[in-house]
Amino acid sequence: MLWLLFFPALVSAHNVTVFAWVDGDTIHTQSKFSGGKRVKNAPILVYDFKDVLLLEGKTDENGMFSFKIPKKTALKIVLKASMGHLAVWKLRAEELDEAESKTAAEPTGMKAPLETKSGSVDIQEKSESSGPTKISLERQEIEKIINASLDKKLAPITEILADSIQRGPGFTEIMGGIGYIFGLVGVALYFANRKRKTDD
Amino acid sequence: MHISEGVLSPAVLIGGAALAAAGVAVGTKNLEQKEISTIGILSAAFFVASLIHVPAGPVSVHLILNGLVGLILGWKAFPAILVGLSLQALLFQFGGMTTLGVNTLNMALPAVFCYYIFRNGLKPGTGRSVIIFSAFGAGFCSVLMSGIMVGFSLYFTGEAFLPAAKLIVAAHLPVMFIEGILTAACVLFLRKVRPELLEEANVPKQST
User: Would you call A47 helix, strand, or coil by DSSP?
Assistant: First the structure.
């Protein structure tokens, strides 16, 4: 098995999938072979909808690759595993718009100290030094807090989604395929039989 | 071994499809009724084999079984493998519809080659060790040749041939051994249970 060491980027022989989701201003991608094995050290290319290459990178040991949103358009993420394998995931522009509104809130200078203080305390402080503009800022703060906690809460769901998308074929598909083959045999036999009868 | 869509150039796709179609035409010429069911069973075996993963270190590859298919079916391996691959593409998303021709060619042509190389070893009356050797050789070489052909497919599209082919062959080394053993076991079993299945392959077809 020594030769295996020389091919770290090696891979399985059939199907690869790449799944991408937006988290804040970053896009995470997860690459897997059917069967659940992660795609390691495989190049990932990111295109916009006009097929212009925006950036490229490589998946890590867990098949993950993350990058900052390069452009606010629909993105096409292409995974190139070796041995003629390729997978594409498309991110719609709306998914990135969500992220845009979040990042756009940042330049106003209102950094929500989410990690250190609880959100409610923070908002209270702000309202003490109140002014007419504060109401909108508070709204932004609240939005940020909600977004952050939503991201945190949705993270496991996103992962479950990624897993379910990348699951291998199930019992239904296998049985369906075998059924198809037997059905084709039946059809072929029918025609063969008919031909023989007309020959007689 | 399944090449995905969007990897190969149109020329390779069309060329592969044309050659695969020719192979299927040869394979389906003068089909006899009893051969149809044999093709169906082997096609089903080929279809399911791709789901059996061979875990070997960091790689996970799956069985192909084209050696066994070729040894029993000869040129009829083309239609059998085409059906199996179509269903794998439709139901499992292995490969794809546009690469169907190339993939069929890559897996069926080595099967046919192995049929011509190793079928003499399966003739009735040959010793047990010869049969085991021939069947193992068919299972082993068909995967090896398929790997080389995938390398060529990528090469014609512009990838460097040697690294691609080396990678594929290296990844499939465990599969080659397992397929060799499996093919040998299957042939021995068939010889005991249904020897006529193997003899069919060796008796030149009588025109009816």
Answer: strand
pTM reported for the whole predicted model: 0.72
Residue A180 lies in a domain: no
Nearest residue of A to residue B54, measured between CA atoms? A12
Number of domains, chain A: 1
Chain B residue with Cα closest to A33: B60
Taking the CA atoms of residue B114, residue B117, residue B122 and residue B126 in that order, the dihedral angle to the nearest 10 degrees is -150
CATH of domain B10-202: 1.10.1760.20
Radius of gyration of chain A (CA): 26
Q: Chain A contact for B53, CB < 8 A?
A: yes
Residue A156 domain flag:
yes
| Residues in contact with B25: Cβ distance below 8 Å, sequence separation at least 6, in sequence order | none
CB-count exposure of residue A143 (10 Å: 0-12, 13-18, 19+): middle
B66 contact residues in A (CB cutoff 8 A): none
Residue A16 covered by a domain: yes
Supply the CATH number for residue A147's domain: 2.60.40.10
> B52 and chain A: CB distance < 8 Å anywhere?
no
Taking CB atoms and an 8 Å cutoff, what residues of chain A touch B1? 13-14, 83
User: ipTM surpassing 0.85, yes or no?
Assistant: no
Residue with token string 């439709």: B90
Q: Of A86, A169, A180, which has the smallest distance from its Cβ to B6's Cβ? A: A86
pLDDT digits (tens, 9 = 90+) for A44-81: 888 887 778 888 888 888 888 888 888 778 888 888 77
Q: What is the DSSP string of A60-108?
A: -TTSEEEEE---SS-EEEEEEETTTEEEEEEE-HHHHHHHHHHHHHGGG
Which residues of chain A have a CB within 8 Å of the CB of B88? 14, 177
Contact at CB, A178 and B3, closer than 8 angstroms: no
